[in-house]
Every structure is written in structure tokens, then in C-alpha cells.
Amino acid sequence: MAEPIGSMNSMEDSSSARAATSSIDDQMDAALRISEKIIEVQDKADLASGPIGLDVGTCNIVMAQNRGNSISISKQQNAFFAIPQSKFTRQILQKNDIVFFEHNKLFYIVGDSAENFANMFNANTMRPMEKGLLTFKEDEGVAIIQAIIKTLVQRPKRLGEIVCFSVPGEPVNDGQSVSTVSGHETVIKMYLESLGYLALSINEALAIVMAEMGEENFTGIGISMGGGMCNVCLAYMSVPVLTFSIQKGGDAIDESVSKEVGLPATKVKGIKEAGINLSALPKNKVELALQMYYTDLINTIVKTIEKVAASSNRIPKISDPLPVVISGGTASPKGFKERFEVALRGIRLPFEIASIRIARDPLYTTAKGALVMAMSESK
Amino acid sequence: MSSQAVIFSPDDMRGALISRMLERKGLKVSLFKNIRNASEAIASLKPHILIVDTEGYFPSELGYFASLSPLLADSAVLFVANSSINDTINMPHTKVDWCVSYPLDLQIIATKALELLKPKEAQGDFKHLLPDIEKGLTEEDKVVIEDEDLEKDLMGFIGLK
Predict the structure, then answer these.
(1) Which of A91, A132, A297, B152 has CB 3.0 to 4.6 Å from A229, enough for a Cys bridge?
(2) How is A161-206 classified by DSSP, letter by letter?
(3) What would the pLDDT profile of A218-264 be if each residue is shown by its tens digit?
(4) ipTM score of the complex?
(5) Chain A interface, mutation test: which of B2, B40, B82, most A Cβ atoms within 10 Å?
(6) Terminus-to-terminus CA distance in chain B, angstroms?
(7) Distance (Å, rounded) from C-alpha B105 to C-alpha B82?
């Protein structure tokens, strides 16, 4: 007999005496309870037990696990630094518990340690991902990302535990069709499954809805503003109705400002992360350039939302105004929310916007939302 | 016990949205995409209501649903469409209604589905389902149903069918 699709009640469930109302409400309540848990950031990842949420971002990889009353978070920079092989260097690396692997007479130092080495050599770290996706620029890109994930996600205690990992939406690139998302997703999925997990993907911005919009029935717009890209998802009762990404994020701001003011991009990033205030007048040329390129990024994403929503025939009739939640490191500066709100209120949309807020833990929201999904799927 | 709805939709997103809405209204939902084994699924699940999202199905596939009419003698069928379809789907053994809305109006679909189930209960077939269905009706549903009753009364009064 035909099998029903999706995560709706399955045929096997049809004999259950449980009312459908309580079933869907129970699922929603369970997801809400998980999303309300507080976050505790760990220095080192615990041994995996139970479902895992994994945010595979351009700058950072973040892992979330359920720990009773809280959610345990561990993260690694999604970066590497290669140094020449030698017996002495190997001893130093091993002695200091630095994560590395060897290939082509080089040591590839991965994760947070890579930045320390890069600073030591007065050079920049390199990344296995660019603009939200695995890059073809590095021969060892796949091995590197596997090594970084492995520092956070070890083999599960039980075969077939669920890991839910984030993937970006299809990029909107001025009419160009660039569709490497499914290839990226397949590579990550294959690796996680080789560890013994059942790997499921979740759209990065849908994860924000899952983490932040439990009280709104998982209905609203999630926006993830990361280093490599920005992702948008309009979800209705947790169903992703509209998803897309733009391949522009915090890195693009750093690079543009760097060109304008003649400072290295890493230095600009440092100034930005030290605390730029978008609601105050700029004090110098770097702050002025940062404000200009922040405004440009906000305008790009808001105009793209307007364009995609206007051309979509998939948005259902929505009578209640929708909340918007923004997360990601790029949304962290003071005054960001206000500036975004002004831009968003200035466009035409086929639905009303209720409120705009920044996520409770902007750096960890995607991993938390992926965990909510992983836990819902493992029930 | 909740009433069983079987949904056929070729579109994952539309199918998921209709399913979620009906689940919230108290129905037990099974969602299918491919019509290949529809007769088997209907015979096995014996749904109280079959919902067919016509957007994306070929006319021949919609015709296939018409051929299932004998299997659906005790069921209601609700066809969902973005715009009215010229080809009539003849299902003589079955209570059929249409929900034509663009954009997709989940509230109206739910209201129509609950309305289709309700008269059956009054006849005794599904009397045991009445509390669930009443529970599923929101104030908004009731207003829509009342509006439709009013429209029927008015049309009858001025001699229109």
C-alpha cells in the first residue's frame, strides 16, 4: 500500500487512539519546551548522546545537545591553517592537544587553534566554506570540514541517533541559477551518516523559527545573518513556505570596508566585533564605512524579501501579522534592529509584519533550532 | 476518536500546510503525493474525507479520482484549486465540494472540510465524531458557515439555485 509522506501522522499511527489535535499540539508543546531551555556554552564538546543540532556556518560550526534543563553548546571556528611538516612540530601539536591532520607534507591545523597559528605567522586563516557553501578552492576542503565537525560530533552511543544539520536556502543571484546547495548538503550528510547518525537537514532560517517562535505556533519570518550569507525563511506552522539566501554577509562588509579604508579585512572585523553602534554618528572613517556597508546589506536583504515575496505564488493567505526574528553575528551591533525595522517597514509585502526582534542567543540560534527539530523527529 | 482525512497533493509545501491546518482542527491526517496507489490507500484508511489539491495534477490524474467514486460512498471529497476548473469531475456516489481560492486559504479549506463532515454526523454515520468536530470549529469557522447559510437562504428566497 502507498505510504503517506512527510512527518504527518503515519499509517502506522492510524490505529492510535490519540486524538490528532493532541498529537500535533503535543509536538508543538514539546518543541516549545525545548526551545525555551537556557543555553550553556562548553569549552569542549561532550560525548554525543541523544539527538544533536548542528549549525554548519561559513565562520563557525556550532553543536547543540539537550542536557536536562539546559542546552549544551560547543563550537569551533570553521577555519584551518597549514604549516610544513616536521617531527618537532608534530610533538608540539600533540603535546598541546591541537587538532590537526597530515597531508602532502603539511600539517592542517583546524578549528579555533588555526587562528592562534595564523596570528603567530602574521597571516590569515583559510576556510573550507565560502558564502555558505563548501568551496572548490581547497583540495582538502572536505577533509578539513570533516576534521572540524569531528572535534564536535563523535560517533553516537547508539547507531541511528538523529543529527539535524543546517543548510542554506537556494541563493537568489539576480536571475542566475546557482544551485550547489544540494551538493553541499549531500557531502555533509554522507559524512555524518558515516559516523553512524541518521542525518537530517534543516533550512538555516527555518531553524531560527523553530528556536524562537514556539509561542507563535512556529509561524513567522526567520532571518539568519552570518559571515558568508544571509538566509530568510517564511514558515507557517513550522512548514517552510518561502526560503532563499543571498550570498552576502558579514565577510562582504569587512572586505568592502577594507578596500575603502585600506585596512586588512581581519582588522576591520576586529573593529566591527569590538562593538560598532549603528544608532550613533560615526566617529571615524572606518565606522563611517561600516555604517554605509551595513546599510547596504540591510537594504539588499530587505529588497530581496520584497522581490521574492512579490513573485511567489506559494504564500498562503495569512490573516495575522507575522513576527520577524533575526539572528547571527552580523545582526549583533547596537542599533541593527532599529535600522532593519526602518528598512523592512518601507517595503510592500503580501502580509503584515507584527514585530521585529533579535534572537535571544544570536550566535547559537541555528544550532538550537536544529536541535529542536532533531528532538521532534526522534520522538 | 478523531475523523480520518486523506490528502492528495502533488506539492509538498501545499500538502504539508493543508495537513497541519486540518490536524490543528482535530482531524487525523495522512498525506500522499502520488496517486498511483490511491485506491489501495483509500480502501485501507477508509477516510471520512478525501481532500484533493488539484494544483499540479494532470487532468487525467484528476479523472482517476472520479473513478474512485464507488470506494468513497461513505466519504466526502473536497477539491482544492487556485481557480475554477472547466472539466467537471463526476462522482455520483460521493458528496463533493470545491474550495477555490488564490492564494491558498487554509482557514476556508478547514471550514469546508469540517462542514462536509458535519451533516454526515447528523445522519448518524459519524455521530461519535461530533465533539471533535465541534471542538475543531473556531469562531472564525462558525462565521464563515453562517455566512454561507445566509447566502443559500438568500439565493433560495430570490429563486436562484
Answers:
(1) A132
(2) -EEEEEEPPPB-BTTB----HHHHHHHHHHHHHHTT-EEEEEEHHH
(3) 999 999 999 989 999 999 999 999 999 999 999 999 999 999 999 88
(4) 0.79
(5) B2
(6) 36
(7) 10
